[in-house]
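Quick one: co-fold with 1,5-di-O-phosphono-alpha-D-ribofuranose.
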Amino acid sequence: MAQQGRLIGIVGPSGVGKDSVMQAVAAARPGIGLVRRAITRPADAGGEDFSSLTEAEFLHREAAGQFLLSWRAHGLHYGIPCEVTELLAQGEDLLVNLSRSVLAEAQARIPGFRTILLTAPAPVLAARLAARGRESAEEIAGRLARAGFALPPGIRAEVVRNDGALAQAVAAVLALLEESPVP
Ligand SMILES: Nc1ncnc2c1ncn2[C@@H]1O[C@H](COP(=O)(O)OP(=O)(O)OP(=O)(O)O)[C@@H](O)[C@H]1O
Ligand SMILES: O=P(O)(O)OC[C@H]1O[C@H](OP(=O)(O)O)[C@H](O)[C@@H]1O
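Sure, here it is.
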């Protein structure tokens, strides 16, 4: 039987660079994959590769127990499909972009679950979200207002700053994974 894969949650405020760091880490370490999330966001929104669902379809799948984790943020629903459990059982190591609000559930449900918290100062977040241009000014303000959301009590997170070159944060995450090698 394959050794259980590791799930690594990447969290932090909107604009901190979760998707950018995850993609670069996965590109640098072919043995690490990315979890494809279900989101009630239009398919052509750009950014990460995700499964675009209508709100009705999302709620149907959520009620049917098809998500390992799900949450609501920024007016959208997000879900992590249960297939992740099978991929982990097959020995795949995976990075997943999570809301800070679901970390306690993730830690309780997934053996060996690990959290990496990315940080950057508020003005840096604001500049990046404006430059990315995926959201309106009003939506960006809402995301920035949520930036200081505290980690739930009891969550052990390894902290990586992404306030300089992206390559520095990617190297820091890779070093953390090396320190405690993903089996
Ligand atoms: N170190 C960096 N230096 C400069 N720009 C960066 C850096 N990291 C990320 N970015 C840019 O900042 C923007 C936000 O990054 P990204 O979408 O990866 O963040 P995120 O944390 O996934 O955000 P969200 O939670 O809103 O999806 C992107 O345009 C990305 O190219
Ligand atoms: O503030 P918290 O709850 O930690 O994160 C909430 C959500 O914000 C980001 O959404 P997106 O990736 O921009 O769609 C994260 O991926 C997460 O789903």
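If it helps, The domain at 7-179 is CATH 3.40.50.300 (Rossmann fold).
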